[in-house]
Specification:
Blueprint lengths: L10 H27 L3 H25 L7 H14 L1 H10 L2 H11 L4 H18 L4 H4 L1 H26 L2 H29 L6 H25 L3 H27 L3 H29 L5
Length: 296
Protein backbone atom coordinates (compact mmCIF):
# COMPACT_ATOMS: atom_id res chain seq x y z
CA UNK A 1 0.00 0.00 0.00
CA UNK A 2 2.81 2.39 0.86
CA UNK A 3 4.65 1.43 -2.34
CA UNK A 4 1.50 2.38 -4.27
CA UNK A 5 1.41 5.77 -2.53
CA UNK A 6 4.98 6.49 -3.63
CA UNK A 7 3.89 8.10 -6.90
CA UNK A 8 1.15 10.11 -5.16
CA UNK A 9 3.41 11.90 -2.68
CA UNK A 10 3.20 15.67 -3.01
CA UNK A 11 6.33 17.74 -3.55
CA UNK A 12 6.48 19.02 0.04
CA UNK A 13 6.45 15.48 1.46
CA UNK A 14 9.09 14.41 -1.06
CA UNK A 15 11.35 17.27 0.03
CA UNK A 16 10.89 16.36 3.69
CA UNK A 17 11.70 12.70 2.94
CA UNK A 18 14.85 13.77 1.08
CA UNK A 19 15.88 15.86 4.09
CA UNK A 20 15.24 12.94 6.44
CA UNK A 21 17.26 10.67 4.19
CA UNK A 22 20.24 13.06 4.30
CA UNK A 23 19.97 13.36 8.11
CA UNK A 24 19.93 9.58 8.51
CA UNK A 25 23.04 8.97 6.40
CA UNK A 26 24.84 11.86 8.13
CA UNK A 27 24.07 10.48 11.59
CA UNK A 28 24.98 6.97 10.45
CA UNK A 29 28.49 8.20 9.66
CA UNK A 30 28.71 10.24 12.88
CA UNK A 31 27.89 7.22 15.05
CA UNK A 32 30.07 4.92 12.94
CA UNK A 33 33.08 7.27 13.13
CA UNK A 34 32.71 7.68 16.90
CA UNK A 35 32.40 3.91 17.37
CA UNK A 36 35.71 3.30 15.58
CA UNK A 37 37.66 5.50 18.00
CA UNK A 38 35.84 4.35 21.15
CA UNK A 39 37.95 2.15 23.42
CA UNK A 40 35.16 1.10 25.79
CA UNK A 41 33.66 -2.07 24.25
CA UNK A 42 30.18 -1.36 25.67
CA UNK A 43 30.14 2.15 24.21
CA UNK A 44 31.52 0.86 20.91
CA UNK A 45 28.69 -1.68 20.58
CA UNK A 46 26.05 0.91 21.45
CA UNK A 47 27.35 3.40 18.91
CA UNK A 48 27.63 0.76 16.19
CA UNK A 49 24.09 -0.44 16.93
CA UNK A 50 22.69 3.09 16.56
CA UNK A 51 24.77 3.56 13.41
CA UNK A 52 23.13 0.48 11.85
CA UNK A 53 19.68 1.76 12.82
CA UNK A 54 20.39 5.09 11.10
CA UNK A 55 21.51 3.26 7.94
CA UNK A 56 18.33 1.17 8.04
CA UNK A 57 16.25 4.37 8.24
CA UNK A 58 18.25 5.84 5.36
CA UNK A 59 17.38 2.83 3.19
CA UNK A 60 13.69 3.15 4.10
CA UNK A 61 13.64 6.71 2.81
CA UNK A 62 15.69 5.75 -0.24
CA UNK A 63 12.77 3.58 -1.39
CA UNK A 64 10.72 6.75 -1.76
CA UNK A 65 13.35 9.08 -3.23
CA UNK A 66 14.96 6.47 -5.46
CA UNK A 67 18.39 8.10 -5.14
CA UNK A 68 21.49 7.94 -2.97
CA UNK A 69 22.47 11.13 -1.12
CA UNK A 70 25.75 12.35 0.34
CA UNK A 71 26.03 13.04 4.09
CA UNK A 72 26.28 16.57 5.44
CA UNK A 73 30.07 16.79 5.90
CA UNK A 74 29.93 20.00 7.94
CA UNK A 75 27.45 18.50 10.41
CA UNK A 76 29.60 15.37 10.65
CA UNK A 77 32.72 17.41 11.44
CA UNK A 78 30.83 19.61 13.94
CA UNK A 79 29.35 16.83 16.09
CA UNK A 80 32.32 14.49 15.88
CA UNK A 81 34.59 17.34 17.03
CA UNK A 82 32.22 18.33 19.86
CA UNK A 83 31.99 14.69 20.97
CA UNK A 84 35.77 14.30 20.99
CA UNK A 85 36.30 17.44 23.08
CA UNK A 86 33.32 17.41 25.46
CA UNK A 87 32.40 13.73 25.50
CA UNK A 88 30.23 11.45 23.41
CA UNK A 89 27.17 11.79 25.63
CA UNK A 90 27.19 15.58 25.42
CA UNK A 91 27.84 15.62 21.66
CA UNK A 92 25.09 13.15 20.78
CA UNK A 93 22.52 14.64 23.14
CA UNK A 94 23.27 18.09 21.74
CA UNK A 95 22.71 16.70 18.25
CA UNK A 96 19.47 15.11 19.43
CA UNK A 97 18.24 18.41 20.88
CA UNK A 98 18.90 20.13 17.58
CA UNK A 99 16.44 17.85 15.83
CA UNK A 100 13.14 19.24 17.12
CA UNK A 101 12.31 20.28 13.56
CA UNK A 102 12.89 16.69 12.41
CA UNK A 103 10.25 15.45 14.86
CA UNK A 104 7.72 17.87 13.36
CA UNK A 105 8.66 16.66 9.87
CA UNK A 106 8.22 13.01 10.94
CA UNK A 107 4.78 13.84 12.30
CA UNK A 108 3.76 15.42 9.01
CA UNK A 109 5.14 12.57 6.89
CA UNK A 110 3.46 9.97 9.12
CA UNK A 111 0.05 11.32 8.07
CA UNK A 112 0.84 10.05 4.59
CA UNK A 113 3.27 7.19 5.28
CA UNK A 114 2.76 4.94 8.30
CA UNK A 115 6.40 3.85 8.18
CA UNK A 116 7.42 7.35 9.32
CA UNK A 117 5.80 6.66 12.68
CA UNK A 118 7.98 3.59 13.16
CA UNK A 119 11.13 5.50 12.22
CA UNK A 120 10.14 8.34 14.57
CA UNK A 121 9.62 5.88 17.43
CA UNK A 122 13.02 4.33 16.76
CA UNK A 123 14.65 7.75 16.84
CA UNK A 124 12.78 8.96 19.91
CA UNK A 125 12.81 5.88 22.13
CA UNK A 126 15.28 3.21 21.09
CA UNK A 127 18.08 5.67 20.36
CA UNK A 128 17.55 7.59 23.62
CA UNK A 129 17.68 4.36 25.56
CA UNK A 130 20.95 3.34 23.93
CA UNK A 131 22.58 6.73 24.47
CA UNK A 132 21.51 6.59 28.12
CA UNK A 133 23.63 3.46 28.57
CA UNK A 134 26.82 5.10 27.39
CA UNK A 135 29.43 5.18 30.13
CA UNK A 136 32.30 7.60 29.71
CA UNK A 137 34.89 9.08 32.03
CA UNK A 138 34.02 12.72 31.28
CA UNK A 139 30.45 12.18 32.49
CA UNK A 140 31.36 10.03 35.50
CA UNK A 141 33.60 12.78 36.83
CA UNK A 142 31.22 15.63 36.02
CA UNK A 143 30.34 15.94 39.70
CA UNK A 144 33.99 16.48 40.58
CA UNK A 145 34.42 19.09 37.85
CA UNK A 146 31.25 20.94 38.84
CA UNK A 147 32.34 20.85 42.49
CA UNK A 148 35.64 22.52 41.57
CA UNK A 149 34.00 25.13 39.33
CA UNK A 150 31.15 26.10 41.65
CA UNK A 151 33.31 26.28 44.78
CA UNK A 152 35.93 28.41 43.02
CA UNK A 153 33.32 30.80 41.63
CA UNK A 154 31.39 31.19 44.89
CA UNK A 155 34.45 31.45 47.13
CA UNK A 156 36.69 33.58 44.93
CA UNK A 157 34.13 36.09 43.62
CA UNK A 158 33.18 36.71 47.24
CA UNK A 159 36.79 36.90 48.38
CA UNK A 160 37.82 39.28 45.58
CA UNK A 161 34.78 41.47 46.23
CA UNK A 162 35.69 41.68 49.92
CA UNK A 163 39.36 42.37 49.22
CA UNK A 164 38.44 45.03 46.66
CA UNK A 165 36.81 47.28 49.21
CA UNK A 166 38.97 46.33 52.19
CA UNK A 167 42.36 46.72 50.50
CA UNK A 168 41.74 49.19 47.64
CA UNK A 169 44.97 48.08 45.92
CA UNK A 170 44.43 46.22 42.66
CA UNK A 171 47.71 44.25 42.63
CA UNK A 172 47.36 43.37 46.30
CA UNK A 173 43.84 42.10 45.64
CA UNK A 174 45.13 40.04 42.72
CA UNK A 175 47.99 38.48 44.70
CA UNK A 176 45.74 37.83 47.71
CA UNK A 177 43.19 36.24 45.40
CA UNK A 178 45.84 34.05 43.77
CA UNK A 179 47.15 32.84 47.14
CA UNK A 180 43.57 32.18 48.30
CA UNK A 181 42.89 30.31 45.05
CA UNK A 182 45.96 28.10 45.34
CA UNK A 183 45.14 27.30 48.97
CA UNK A 184 41.56 26.56 47.97
CA UNK A 185 42.74 24.25 45.19
CA UNK A 186 44.88 22.20 47.57
CA UNK A 187 42.01 22.05 50.05
CA UNK A 188 39.52 20.93 47.36
CA UNK A 189 41.89 18.28 45.98
CA UNK A 190 42.36 16.79 49.44
CA UNK A 191 38.66 16.93 50.31
CA UNK A 192 37.60 15.35 47.02
CA UNK A 193 40.17 12.57 47.37
CA UNK A 194 38.99 11.52 50.83
CA UNK A 195 35.31 12.04 49.98
CA UNK A 196 35.57 9.81 46.89
CA UNK A 197 37.61 7.21 48.77
CA UNK A 198 34.92 6.93 51.46
CA UNK A 199 32.10 6.46 48.92
CA UNK A 200 31.00 3.28 47.18
CA UNK A 201 31.61 4.50 43.65
CA UNK A 202 33.34 3.48 40.43
CA UNK A 203 35.31 6.74 40.46
CA UNK A 204 39.03 6.58 41.17
CA UNK A 205 39.85 8.94 44.10
CA UNK A 206 43.06 10.30 42.58
CA UNK A 207 41.33 10.99 39.26
CA UNK A 208 38.30 12.62 40.92
CA UNK A 209 40.59 14.91 42.95
CA UNK A 210 42.59 15.73 39.79
CA UNK A 211 39.45 16.85 37.92
CA UNK A 212 38.27 18.89 40.91
CA UNK A 213 41.65 20.57 41.36
CA UNK A 214 42.05 21.30 37.65
CA UNK A 215 38.56 22.83 37.42
CA UNK A 216 39.21 24.91 40.55
CA UNK A 217 42.60 26.34 39.57
CA UNK A 218 41.53 27.13 35.98
CA UNK A 219 38.50 28.97 37.34
CA UNK A 220 40.76 30.87 39.76
CA UNK A 221 43.00 32.02 36.90
CA UNK A 222 40.01 33.15 34.82
CA UNK A 223 38.61 35.12 37.77
CA UNK A 224 41.77 36.88 38.98
CA UNK A 225 43.40 37.90 35.68
CA UNK A 226 41.75 41.39 35.61
CA UNK A 227 43.35 42.24 38.99
CA UNK A 228 46.79 41.17 37.73
CA UNK A 229 46.69 42.86 34.31
CA UNK A 230 44.37 45.89 34.50
CA UNK A 231 44.56 49.15 36.48
CA UNK A 232 40.96 49.95 37.47
CA UNK A 233 40.03 47.94 40.56
CA UNK A 234 36.25 48.27 40.23
CA UNK A 235 36.26 47.49 36.51
CA UNK A 236 38.38 44.44 37.34
CA UNK A 237 35.78 43.32 39.87
CA UNK A 238 33.07 43.77 37.24
CA UNK A 239 35.03 41.61 34.76
CA UNK A 240 35.62 38.96 37.44
CA UNK A 241 31.88 38.72 38.12
CA UNK A 242 31.17 38.66 34.37
CA UNK A 243 33.75 35.86 33.89
CA UNK A 244 32.07 33.94 36.71
CA UNK A 245 28.65 34.26 35.05
CA UNK A 246 30.10 33.06 31.73
CA UNK A 247 31.68 30.02 33.40
CA UNK A 248 28.38 29.24 35.12
CA UNK A 249 26.59 29.59 31.77
CA UNK A 250 28.98 27.18 30.04
CA UNK A 251 29.04 24.41 32.64
CA UNK A 252 25.29 24.69 33.37
CA UNK A 253 24.61 24.28 29.65
CA UNK A 254 26.94 21.26 29.57
CA UNK A 255 25.24 19.62 32.55
CA UNK A 256 21.75 20.41 31.27
CA UNK A 257 22.51 18.63 27.98
CA UNK A 258 24.48 15.70 29.40
CA UNK A 259 22.21 14.91 32.36
CA UNK A 260 18.87 16.33 31.21
CA UNK A 261 18.77 18.95 33.98
CA UNK A 262 16.56 22.02 33.31
CA UNK A 263 18.88 24.84 32.21
CA UNK A 264 16.43 27.69 32.86
CA UNK A 265 16.08 26.74 36.52
CA UNK A 266 19.71 25.86 37.30
CA UNK A 267 21.45 28.81 35.63
CA UNK A 268 19.72 31.73 37.40
CA UNK A 269 19.94 29.83 40.70
CA UNK A 270 23.72 29.52 40.44
CA UNK A 271 24.14 33.13 39.27
CA UNK A 272 22.02 34.48 42.15
CA UNK A 273 24.00 32.45 44.71
CA UNK A 274 27.35 33.64 43.31
CA UNK A 275 26.33 37.30 42.99
CA UNK A 276 24.64 37.21 46.39
CA UNK A 277 27.80 35.99 48.12
CA UNK A 278 29.91 38.50 46.19
CA UNK A 279 27.60 41.32 47.29
CA UNK A 280 27.66 40.21 50.94
CA UNK A 281 31.45 39.98 51.08
CA UNK A 282 31.77 43.31 49.27
CA UNK A 283 29.69 44.85 52.08
CA UNK A 284 31.78 42.95 54.65
CA UNK A 285 34.95 44.40 53.12
CA UNK A 286 33.44 47.87 53.35
CA UNK A 287 32.59 47.36 57.04
CA UNK A 288 36.04 45.95 57.80
CA UNK A 289 37.68 48.97 56.17
CA UNK A 290 35.46 51.42 58.08
CA UNK A 291 35.49 49.87 61.54
CA UNK A 292 39.06 48.57 61.58
CA UNK A 293 40.30 51.67 59.76
CA UNK A 294 42.29 49.68 57.21
CA UNK A 295 44.33 51.90 54.91
CA UNK A 296 46.83 50.65 52.36
Amino acid sequence: MEEESKEKLDEEIKRKIATMQKNEITEHFIYHTLSKSEKNSNNKNILESISKDELKHYNIWKKYTGVDVEPNRLKMWEYITISKIFGITFGLKLMERGEEGAQIAYEKISRTLAVAKKVMNDEGEHEKKLIGFIDEEKLRYTGSIVSGLSDAIIELTGTLAGFTFALQNIRLVGVAGLITGIAGTLSMVTSEYFATKSEETSKIPSRASFYTGLAYILTVLVLIWPFLLLTNIYFSLFLTILDGIIIILIYTFYISISKNIPFRKRFPEMVLISLGIAALTFILGFLVRIFLKVTI
